[in-house]
Fold this protein.
Amino acid sequence: MSESVGFIGLGIMGRGMARNLLRAGFPLTVWNRTASRVEELVAAGAAAATTPVDLAAKSTIIITCVSDTPDVEAVILGEAGVIEGVQAGTLVIDCSTISPQTTQQIAARLAEKGAHMLDAPVSGGSEGAERGTLSIMVGGDEQQVQRAMPVLQAMGKTITHIGGIGTGQMTKLVNQILVAGSMMAMAEALLFAQAGGLNLQKVLEAVSGGAAGSWTLSNRGPQVLRRDWRPGFTIDLQQKDLRLVLQAADQLGVPMLSTSMIFNLYRTLQAAGAGAEGNHALIKALEQLARIEVGGSSPQDR
Ligand code: NAP
């Protein structure tokens, strides 16, 4: 294994993904804007870089997993960014969910330095990042995808090369239409079950194993019943993704009926100050409309 890997962005997703790269035996250098977040990775055997440019000088494969499009631009193209230290032949893999068009522009800038880029957004939540079972949707050149495969396999289970640069991000937007829809279906179903006086725990058990079962139901349903709004994926980041979906759909001229409704329901929660809560808190928007509270210590759960 001759690649040295650099990892930028040790948030909810990045820290689990970086830990799995260490477990797989890759020499790893890490950088995070908030410096204290590197400590647990350094304790596990990673080296710490002082800036993205410092990290780039030490790495042949650089992975980024930061929040939004301007943040990827900042760490790659910004001051003391990756582009200032990148060597010809280096491969940059962006695992953030960002604009497909900007991805193509960043790839073009890196290509001027002789560096390669893949877009490789992920799905599977904080649990998937932790366990190394992410689905990874990859766009870019086939040869670089083959080169990246051992690194991607250390972080994920289902790795799909979709097509050219940007197609990974487009596929991730498809994924987010599905995620938002399943979150909405779960919220509406649990509200209905609560109003019907059903035992919600038993309802979840009954429907999770059948045709209506889903990742959302199995992983976030129990959290809703406990009224545990800690984020696997924050509402603010979910909104960033739905904004990307709606912008792309507008350009494509495709109507997005339920996605735009769900975007607006999440907006009411952001306006109420809940942007840092998990995206399963969507149910609170329906609770407000119905004046019903789901789960928690309601008699149906006891
Ligand atoms: P997060 O916990 O909020 O972490 C965001 C990371 O980005 C942090 O390390 C943060 O640094 C860094 N960052 C943000 N803006 C930056 C900037 N301008 N310059 C440098 N660093 C910056 O988010 P996350 O949940 O890990 O998500 C990361 C990416 O993965 C997002 O694109 C998200 O859409 C995607 N994703 C998330 C999930 C999920 O379930 N959470 C699933 C699939 C994909 P600080 O520590 O300094 O704040």
